[in-house]
Design a protein that fits this description.
By secondary structure, the chain is an alpha/beta fold. The protein is built from ten helices and 14 strands. The protein folds into two domains: about 200 residues, Rossmann fold, CATH 3.40.50.720; about 110 residues, UDP-galactose 4-epimerase, domain 1 (Alpha-Beta Complex), CATH 3.90.25.10. Strands 3-2-1-4-5-6-11 form a seven-stranded parallel beta sheet, with helices on both faces. Strands 12-9-14 form a three-stranded mixed beta sheet. It has a two-stranded parallel ribbon with strand order 7-10. It binds uridine-5'-diphosphate.
Length: about 325
Amino acid sequence: MKILVTGGAGYIGSHVVYRLIEQGHTAVVFDNLVAGHQQAVHPSATFIQGDLLDTNAIRDLFEDHAPFSGIMHFASHIQVGESMREPFKYLRDNVQAMTNLLEVATEQGVGRFILSSTANLYDHPTRVPIPEDEPLIPGSVYGETKFMGERLLMWMEKIYGLRHACLRYFNASGAHPDGIIGEDHRPETHLIPLILQVALGQRPHIDVFGTDYDTPDGTCIRDYVHVMDLADAHILALEALADGRSRTYNLGSGEGYSVLEVIETARRVTGHPIPVQTGPRRAGDLARLVADSSKIKAELGWKPKYGDLQSIVETAWRWHQSHPQGYGE
Ligand code: UDP
């Protein structure tokens, strides 16, 4: 398959591109490098620097590289907190950009589309582990932009027959097992890379946001899912769309770990004491977010290979040790 990967220089997109190429597919990466890193793009992928806000640039991309077997759309801003301070940045760069992409994709008759969606659609879960049919209540403007993306795809299917899969990730983490690519967000806000920066001596301690949640140790529980397992799920989902049926899946390991359990695992993996400073709750955090991923397992035979926290932290640590400054300047 020849796949267009928007945001293929970003954290999850770059891992999916590695997986696609490892499996013998062809990838064309379109990324504006605002958050992505060119060094993260697999050397065998075709890389085009461009912006989805520029519809002509998308048309040029198709002119030079179509036809595509499908599109995997990762390009977006991803920070919950930032989206509440700068909502229009998210509405423009996530929603308008995706609309432009869909306009050209439908003109060009692309048949399959995978959307990078989020667990931030489940702000009031009534069941945990969370299945796909929980009420969709975005927890932020960021989540709302993904919700809108899912809705746009529903209309694109009705009007143009565009088959799609919406993949709602829980806490994407870990790195390619070879330590060649990994997570490098600027600024970094995610728990595991921040903990590993403490182990590298780049931070004095890790802040724990809230110890008074209704959980066994009082800290928040999350479902950490390995980025290579996410990559496999994208490829399975794209292949599955050949049956003409659009679908939505929650992607998690199904296991919840508290913030303190993650820190303890990182202590074991790194041998570093990782000092902790406890602080107040972070606005908007839910006590427990765990995915019910039984649907994709049953329908597509998805089997996470790095289902345990230890291998997530080990692969992330390999990346951080070999790239203490991430991708550099
Ligand atoms: N967290 C924390 N300290 C940090 C960063 C995160 O205690 O420096 C907590 C956060 O409150 C949440 C969990 O770690 O409960 C995972 O946070 P992250 O930002 O990695 O992902 P989120 O679950 O918000 O998508």
